[in-house]
Amino acid sequence: MSIFVYRNQTVEPLFSNLKDVTLSDYGSINFPEGNFLLSIWCYFITPGFDENEILKEIEDIQTKLQLAITNNEAGNFLIFTLDGRYLPSWQLSSNVVSESISEFNKSIYDLSINSSTIKIVKIDELFNQFKLIDIIDKKYYYLSKIIINPLLNKFFHLWFESVLKSMNGVRKKCLVLDLDNTMWGGILGEDGINGIKLGNNYPGSCFVDFQKQLKEAKKNGVLLAISSKNNENDVWEAFENHPDMILKKDDFVSFRINWNNKADNIREIAIELNIGLDSIVFIDDNPFERSLVGEIEPEVILPDFPEKPYEMTDFFQGVYNKYFLLYKLTGEDTVKTEQYKANSARLKNSKEFVSINDYLKSLKTIIKIDEADTFNIPRIAQLTQKTNQFNLTTKRYSEPEIIEINSLNNLIFCASVSDKFGDNGITAAGIILINDNVAEIDSYMLSCRILGRKAEFAIIKSVLNYLYTKEITSIKSYYIPSLKNSQTEKFYDLLGFTSKILPSKSKEYTLNLKKLFTLEDLFTINLNIKK
Amino acid sequence: MKNRIKKVMASVFLEEENKISDDISQINFEKWESLQHLMLIVELESEFGVSFEPEDMVKMTSLEMIEKQLILTMER
Fold it and tell me: A76-80, A175-179, A258-262: which range is least confident on average?
């Protein structure tokens, strides 16, 4: 992806790890020729001593930024906050410079709230990890006028990569946790409920805070699960009755409390939640358990657990920042735990019905199909990034790419599925490239949350029926095999497409629509496409 | 020591180690411009655990000069 960086200082080393980066001239807001997917505004206030000069520079940066935003042609625009911790303050009582910086940062924050393409990057999140003398090394600064100490480059690279990832919605999904000496101190089976360490005093206080962090992670869309060698009854009794327990049984979407090996447990949890093993981070204080899981399931992430209880909160923040950081919660993320639990309820429910169709009808599912718009494009991009199992071509797109495809005569759609258990939100999307009366299904995917109820057929049939009414009857599509999408291998065959195997082992399909598809009477479908 | 310096140079200039000749200098090696020079100094400082003075840095314009300066600085 090509990136354009607006800058007023020497920042080349900060972005040297990224491919395809073009930098502006110093302090210039000319947008260059060429296609850029992302613009980055990375300005630093010039170190100086005269407060009036500094204020003028901040004002100038503000003016330039506004012009740059107006003239910017890249899809996304990332703005670094300004940070003035290296600027002098001559009187303790006066802080005009820091006030002006706060105002600037507040104004870009407002911009980002009112726009789906402008996002802010808080440089203080990086700086706060260092001492001031490490942020600007005066020897290097006076020699080269490079503000950020070159020794910080590799930290900046790692940090900024995780920022970019979180903006693209790439994150792990589930945290599988051990219990003894992880969620509390001591061993429940030996020490008993009253003997485990959890409460106001050290080291119990560390475990309480660790649980508080897990709770926040859950609120931010991370799924929590348990894999522990324990007696299940003891565990639930502890969760229910220990006065200092922060987490409750309800906070976990899945659990395996038994004496089996943890690799098997984790695999079962993955199957139950319908997620890949590479979406799982496993936290266990016991290096033996971690390495066993690592041997058998190398895709699972296994962070090294800290030696000392007081190191746990920093440890967890690190794990969260590395694997789970996200830019903004979508509605889907927040209610995820509820949705996964509702799905478990659906699974249990389905056992009582004789015919699967009867069961599906009883769900009273409503499928709403919409074309792409500014509100759902972030979620559509997120689906292309995250969906692995039911994904015919596994093509990943960023928001700006989706916007670009959508600006042409193509059809991008998404579908929300709700039923009597709850609203699953937007859980399917497709991209159809249209050329005259030929339609090519470039991408089609469904989140695993709504698989197993034939919605995948209903959605694509409805969209193809719509194309038919627009006299677009020649349909092309593809299946590109990936490590995870084998369940979609026959999808287009089942819809009646004719296949041809390509040398790459992908399949190319064609279909001439001669009549409307008949839709099974399992859902209510609302199609809102007007394009 | 020469080989260790070459290794650092190769990583800073993003070059194969065998492309770094014994007579490499700022004059005959295009990628060695001022910004890269600073990065090279930074990496040499951490590789050899030393700290160069600005006056010395400007003299370190070839492999030979770097080696000389390193020996001097390490003896200090």
Answer: A258-262
Residues of B in contact with A156 (CB under 8 A): none
Residue A461: count other Cβ atoms within 10 Å of its Cβ: 17
Amino acid at B2: K
Residue B54, chain A, CB below 8 Å: the answer is: yes
Q: Report the candidate in A381, A183, A388, A395 with the shortest Cα–Cα distance to residue A275.
A: A388
Look at B57 and A143 and tell me if their CB atoms are within 8 Å.
yes
In whole angstroms, give the CA distance from residue A291 to residue A287.
6
Q: Taking the alpha carbons of B14, B20, B25, B30 in that order, is the dihedral positive or negative?
A: negative
Nearest Cβ partner for A13 among B39, B51, B57: B39
Edge-to-edge strands of the sheet including A118-121? A21-23, A3-7, A38-42, A76-80, A118-121
Kindly determine whether residue B39 and residue A140, on different chains, have CB atoms separated by under 8 Å. no
Taking 70 as the threshold, does the pLDDT of residue A344 lie above it?
A: no
* pLDDT, tens digit (0-9, with 9 covering 90-100), for A61-73: 998 898 888 888 7
On whether any CB of chain A is under 8 Å from the CB of B72, the answer is no
A371-398 pLDDT, tens digit per residue, is: 999 889 999 998 998 888 899 999 999 9
Neighbouring residues of A461: CB distance < 8 A, sequence distance ≥ 6: A495, A517, A519
The pLDDT of residue A444: 97
Q: Do A144 and B35 touch (CB under 8 A)?
A: yes
